[in-house]
Amino acid sequence: MKLQVLNKEGKKVKEMDTKLFEEPIRIDIISKIVEAEKIKQPFSNTFRAGMDRSASGNVRHRRHVWKSHYGRGMSRIPRKAMSRRGTQFSWVGAIVPFARGGRRAHPPKGSTGLVKINRKEAIKALLSSLSYVADNKAIEKKYARIEKVEGTFPLIVEDKVVELKTGDFLKSLKKILGDLYEVAIQEKSVRAGKGKMRGRKYKQNAGLLFIVGNDEDKNVNGIDIIKVNDLSVSDLASGGARLTLFSEKAIEELEKVFDDEKKSKTKEIKVKKVDIRKIRRENRKKKVKKIEDKSEGVKEDA
Question: Average pLDDT in the 96-105 region?
Answer without folding.
Answer: 87
